[in-house]
User: What shape does this take?
Amino acid sequence: MSNVRSSKIDESAAIELALEAVRDAVRLPAGSRIVAAMSGGVDSTVTAALLARAGYDVVGVTLQLYDHGAAISRKGACCAGQDIHDARAAAETIGIPHYVLDYESRFRDQVIEEFADAYLRGETPIPCVRCNQTVKFRDLLDVARDLGAAAMATGHYVRRVVGNAGPELRRAADPAKDQSYFLFATTADQLDYLRFPLGGLSKPQVRAVAADLGLTAADKPDSQDICFVPEGKYHTVIDRLRPQGALPGDVVHLDGRVLGRHDGVTRYTIGQRRGLNIGGGDPMFVVRIDAAARQVIVGPREALLTTALTLKEVSWIGDDDLETACAQRRPVLARVRSTREPVAGRLTLIDGEIGVALDLFEEGVAPGQACALYDPDSPDRVLGGGFIAKAVRGSSPPENPHIQRHPE
Assistant: This one.
């Protein structure tokens, strides 16, 4: 009997600790209406459940983003099929109203079509950022406001901290789950309205709370890969939408030699080594894709070393002005891949475009990918970022002849 009582006390303490973190993240009076974006996964389900427990007026909203029939039995997806059913069931268990919005056409136009076009341009897109930037943090926020909500909450692992100049976006308390890289495009206005209740919690804590609350999502696997790409085979989507991307062309060495043929530029990404079909010899890597000429350009690994990069669609939520920051060569930490830590660099103008000069070589930087920028004086703070337009390759940048390779 004492063991049962002890277990219940432990569960209660864990839930109270999580509720304290949620109230600290939300900072709104009890009873305030909050729209909770519910994808059907454990994170968004726990977010809605904790908000309701904390005394907020919670409304759950789920987006149907792509073909229901194709995804209904697929595991590891989100925003379709079984996940919509799970979100609806979770809302019923929590005791909150729940709505499903059909955003398939918006998602197709703003995310899937852009994904295919980017590969056709020889880029390596990152659709999760585009989805957050458009469908979720622009269109869905409008719905939340129409519902009279004081805020919209998501299950992302990031933190919103109110600083001297207003809300700041910061990395999650759990570095293993931090999603700040994928949210670099969040604007100041959006950040003012958004809340991230899980930012101060770890993933094990969230799963434990889900189990303590009796939520069936407690053991549900996390979503994997790109939600609309079956089994991770992205070229099947691109071939259907942009069949011209499968036209054959030449595999060309940096020195101009034609080494072989390929089956379409959309099959290749920067840094790729396998599948080049160019025979033996020294290892070759994809260093550039000339989509217009249908050429895949290859070279030695050293040719992938990047000293600087230019950005497009730049978002900036730093306290200073972006133009001034570039003119003054403001120090930043640049993160060019979600799986790597940021490296030191400086904002600058490169051929009239906003760019970052790096203090360490980065390898395999690909146009189309995201570059999130952080504050060196407060390394967990997100300053913004952009999509990589061009990678500047070279032995060393003029301003730093002692540049070193990023440690693996």
Remarks:
- Residues 2-231 form a domain with the Rossmann fold fold (CATH 3.40.50.620).
- The chain has a mean pLDDT of 89.
- The first strand starts at residue 33 and ends at 37.
- The CA atoms of residues 345 and 359 lie 5 Å apart.
